[in-house]
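For consistency, the fold was encoded as tokens, as this record shows:
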Amino acid sequence: MNNTMDANARVFEVELMAQEEERRQTRIELRDTTEVRAVSAL
């Protein structure tokens, strides 16, 4: 029982980390796009 819970917790942590990394990448892309637009506007 405990092993199953531990495994599920690990899977959950890995998925959470993957989601956070994905969000971070999206933010970086958004920032880059905004910078490009700002430079184009100049």
Notes: The chain has one domain: 1-42. The first helix runs from residue 2 to 41.
